[in-house]
Prior knowledge:
The complex is a heterodimer. Chain A contains 5 helices and 9 strands, in the order ββαββββαβαααββ. Chain A has helices spanning 95-108, 165-178, 188-203, 211-217, 230-233; strands at 83-87, 91-94, 114-118, 125-128, 143-150, 155-161, 183-187, 237-238, 241-242. Chain A has a 4-stranded antiparallel beta sheet. Chain A is flat. By secondary structure, chain B is an alpha+beta fold. Chain B is elongated, with a radius of gyration of 42 Å. In chain B, strand 4 and strand 5 form a beta hairpin. Chain B has helices spanning 5-13, 40-55, 69-81, 91-100, 124-133, 151-159, 163-209, 214-220, and strands at 58-64, 84-87, 114-119, 137-144, 147-149. Classes of the chains: A alpha+beta, B alpha+beta. Chains A and B meet through loops of A and helix 1 and helix 2 of B. Chain B: Belongs to the universal ribosomal protein uL10 family. Chain B: InterPro entries: Ribosomal_uL10, Ribosomal_uL10-like_sf, Ribosomal_uL10_bac_type. Chain B: Keywords: Mitochondrion, Ribonucleoprotein, Ribosomal protein, Transit peptide. Chain B: It is found in: Mitochondrion.
Amino acid sequence: MRRWWLPAQLAARAGPGGLVIPRAGLKQYTQPPDYSGIIIPERTKLKFVDKVPSVPKVRREPRQLRDIRGPSQEATDFTQGQYGILALGGGYLHWGHFEMIRLTIGRNMDPKTMFAIWRVPPPSKPVTRKSLGHRMGGGKGPIDHYVTAVKSGRLVVEIGGHCEFGEVEAFLTQVAKKLPFPATAISRDGLEQMRKEEEEKRLNNQNPWTFERVVTGNMLGMRKYLSPYDLKLKGRYWGKFFLKHRV
Amino acid sequence: KAMHFQRQKLMAVTEYLPPRPAIPPRCLPRQEETRQEENGYARLLRRQVEEAFRDNRMIAVCQYNYMPGEDVVMMRHYLRKHNIEVKFFLNEIVRPVLSQSKYKNLLPLFVGRNVLLVSRETKAKEMLRVLKGVPQINLLGACIDDTILSRKGVEYFARLPPLEAAQGQTVGALALLPSQTSSLLQRGSVYLTALLDQHIQRLRAAETESPAEPGPAQSSG
């Protein structure tokens, strides 16, 4: 818990000789954080996630990597919690990842004052694997395991309750590093800040030539070398990667 | 997956260029950070300081060195008997209050550890006596009835006679002349009566000499 009862730091200004005399001024009391609007649900820990869905799929599905590409359209904003893990790239989460997230968060959080919820569905997409060492051909391999597709900009888990970002950030970054795609721990304010910064960057860009402009106008016949998806992706996404430094 | 070279070139051309103002911000004078919201507690203390300065006639600023707790209590007790209160205020609160009021010249006194002795009456003699017995507190200056006095000034002030005696003296000095007015006015008539008395005495003396014999005979007859 952040120690709100300790006074804020005093700025000691250096005197004429560069000498700083530490002196005690008026004690500034900081208000404790207000958790009035937060309701902690009954089941605070993350639910167990099945390896295989209850109705396993018979038909083997094509790869469809487009479920990794581009920005996410669902689960981009916070619902109940205040802090979460934001995916900054696309990828697949399998049961091992789910277990790791569940156990790490369950170990580090306080079930009485904090709660966590999944923002990602349990694995439903079947992934096939051919047995090792065989030559190409002979049809599609059998279903090996199930995964969930995560696009960039999607929240994976949400944490909430009577806690501050500082306490939660530690184990959330620990989890985020272990995910197959780049991810960060983030709070509501942090997300807002990020979006505002992106918008500002887009507005005060001094470069008159933007990817979007070139693509929509097909300048220099660039569309020959670009994909039709680039109209939507606008140069910020390349496959599963989210290029944060662009525009 | 590797990008086509043309695509790489396009990405390089359409990179983000941050804005470059004509004068870089680090050459401009530094903007002072916005003041933190005022502490209610600081406001209360400031109000208390203002009240102390308004209500009391005598305000003495003393340097406060370390004193054991019981000595502080004893000193406060002695001063309380003479209706003098001992107040502790933080310099960082007192300084802005003084700089905006009429007590600007007291500002140099509020540096370092200090204590305020305030009172409604101006009992400088008793205060000095108590402070003499406490070596850890040194009088720096005082403001008595809106007049700033130094340490010497306070000693002289203490040596002055009490207000009633001084008032009596002035009244006596002023009333000296009017008290003489009545005697002045009566002086003429008093002089005349004295002269007449003297004259009568001289006539009587002359009468008693000549009709000395028929006088007593007449009086007896």
